Amino acid sequence: MRPRSRLTAVVIGAGQAGLAASWWLARRSIDHVVLERGDVAHSWRTERWDSLTLLTPNWQSRLPGFGYEGDDPDGFRTMAETVGFLQDYARTISAPVHAHTRVTSVRRVDDGYEIVTDQRTWRCDAVVLATGACNIPAVPAVARALPPSIAQVTPLQYRRPGDLDPGGVLVVGASASGVQIADELQRSGRQVTLAVGEHVRVPRIYRGRDIKWWMDRSGVLDQRYDEVDDIVRARHVPSLQLAGYADRRSADLNSLTSLGVKLVGRLAGVSNEGKAQFSGSLRNVCALADLKMNRLLDTVDQWAAGSGLDGGIAASHRFAATEIEESPPLLLDLARSRVRTVVWATGFRPDYSWLDVPVLDPKGGMRHDGGVVTGAPGLYVLGLPFLRKRKSSLIDGVGDDAKHVTAHLAAWLRDRASASAELIAARG
Amino acid sequence: MTTATTEKTARNGVNVDALFGAREALTNAPEAAQFKWRASCEWIKGTQSRSSVESFYGLGAEQKHKHKFSFDSDHPEVFASEDNGATPVEIVLAGLAGCLTAGIAAVAQARDIQLRSVKATLEAGMDIRGILGADPDVRNGFDGIKVSYKIDADASPDDIKALVAQSQKRSAVYDIITNPTNVTVEVNK
Q1: pTM of the full predicted structure?
Q2: Which of A9, A13, A244, A424 could be a cystine partner for A53, CB 3.0 to 4.6 Å?
C-alpha cells in the first residue's frame, strides 16, 4: 500500500491561484502542500501559443507579497517571462509544491478529504481547488459536421502560423484568443474569416492610459460578486477583446478588417455540402459591443472628472463604431474558398473529471458562494471568472480571493475544533 | 445575491417581476421550460389558406390561449391572386416586429425606462425569380430585412439603442430568422 500522509490542507494546482493560496495558508500557519501535475505554471508553459503576451500590464501582476520591480511597468510579459515570474514567486514564498504529482481523485472520507495522486495519497481537512477555468476547450457540437479534410485546432494546441496549412482559415470566436490568432494568421498571408458572436470590445489605450489602469483605479475591477445585478451572466461574459501588443494597438474588429480579415456572424451550422452557415446577427452583436464599450468609457469619464484628472490628461472621446459590410456573407463554401483550417476560439471550461465530490451543477459548473464550495464543508475553489470580484480571473485578482477563501477556511477549522472539544467535554 | 433596490417608476405594462421569477424558477426546473408552439392550417381556395393557433404546451401541461386566433394568408392581385389576406412573408415580418417590440417593452421595464411610443417599419427585399424557379442561383427567401424603430422614451439615445440591441439578443423570432433551423415536413393520409 502506498504511504498515506495526513495534513490540514491540500492545494491542487501551482499556478497563480494555488501559489497565492499557499502564501495565505502559510501566513495563517496552516500546514499544507501544493500538488502540481507538471511544474509551477504548467498551463502557462504548455498550453499557450508562441507570440502570446499577458493581456494585463506588468504593474498589474500583483500577488500577495510580490509585485513588479522591473523598469517596464506598462509592458506585457511573454509566456516565458510569466513562467519565470511565477517560478520566482514560488521560490520566494517557499511554496511546498509537489511537482509532477497528478491528482486522480478527490473524495470525502469520514473526517475530511482523500486526495489520490499518481505519487501518493494524502488525507486532509480542507482542499483548495486551484486548477483554473480553462482546462478544456469548449468546442461546439457543429465541429463534428466539418469534413475530415479540414484541420481543426484549439488555442491550447495552436502554436504559430507556420504549423498550419498555407490555405485559408476560419477562426471561430472573436474574444481575446480569437482576435489575436486571427491577427497573426492574416499577417502570415493566410486569408482569415472570423466568425463573430457576442464579444466585449475595449480599447487598449483610452485618454493616454491603459484600459486596465482605468478599470483598476475607477473600481470597476473591484466590483464584488454580490453587488452585480446578474452574477450568472457576469460569470459568463467572454474575455475582453484585448491583446498585449508591444505597440499597444487595440485588437478590435475594425483593425482586423483593415488587415483584410473577413467578418461573418456567429457560426450557426455546417451543411451537408460543406458550407459553413453564419448567423445574420453580426450587426447586432457589434452594436451591443460598441454600446457596452461606450458605457464603460462613460464610467471612466465620470470617475476621471470626479477625481480631478480632466485637466491633466487627454480629452474624452469615442471610438469609431464597428464597421460591418452591407450584407455580410451567410454561407461559406469551405472547399471552394480554400479554407484548410478551423480554429475553435470558442472559450474553455474547467476539468473536474477527477473530483469525486457531488458539487457540480447540471451543466458541470462548480456551485460556490464566493469560492466557498456549496455542500462540501472544507472545500474551496479559486481562479474562476468573477469568483468574488470582476478581477478574480486575473493574476492581479486571485490574491484578494485567496485571502478571503483562506480566512473562511481558517475560521471553519477553528469552529470545527471547538465544536468537537465541546462534544468531548459534554461526553466527559 | 443583492440587487439594486431603488424604486422603479416606469409603467410599460410588462410584469417583469413575473418574468424574472420565471427565469429563476425555470433555471432549476429545465423540464418545465420546454414549450411546444403549434399552429394549424387549412387550404381555402387558390392561394388562400387560414391558419389558426389555440393550444400550446408549457410548464409541464397543456395550455390554451384565451381565444382561438386566425390569420388568413393569400397573395396580392399582382400575383394574379385574390388578395384575401397578407402574404405569408408579410406575416413573418409581423412576427419579427411583434417579437422585437415586446422585447423592447420588457427590457425597458426591467431597466426602468418609461416608453411613450414605439413604432417600427420593416422592409425585406426579395428577388421573386427565386420562388418562380426562373434562376437557380437566386434564393427563395428574403435577401435581407431592414427594421427601423422610432422610439420616444425617457432615456438617452444610447440607452434607447441598447434597448433595441438587447431585445434582438433575446428575441425568438430574430433567432429563428438569423440562424438555420431544421424543418421536418411529413405527409399523412
Answers
A1: 0.91
A2: A244
